[in-house]
Amino acid sequence: MPDLEALERYIHDPVHIAGDEQILDKIEKLSAVRFTDADDPDLGKAVYDLHVGKTQVYPEWGRRIEELFGADV
Q1: How far are the Cα atoms of 13, 38, 43, 62 from residue 58, in angstroms, in the given order?
Q2: How far is 12 from 31, CA to CA, in rounded Å?
Q3: Prediction pTM value
Q4: Gyration radius (Cα) of the chain, Å
Q5: What confidence score (pLDDT) does residue 10 get?
């Protein structure tokens, strides 16, 4: 992703949202791998904040993520 705005558009894109239910069960056992070439030490928190924002817009999605991966994703 080129920037946080692009990531936010991506995670809220209707196609991405529709695909979540199709893929969540399949990635349940995987762990996240995070790669970046950014020097921003606050980037992880910013990405996490986008995740929290998505759980507020889509509370069922947030509950599903918590069921699969725990509350501290």
Answers
A1: 12, 28, 23, 6
A2: 21
A3: 0.71
A4: 13
A5: 94
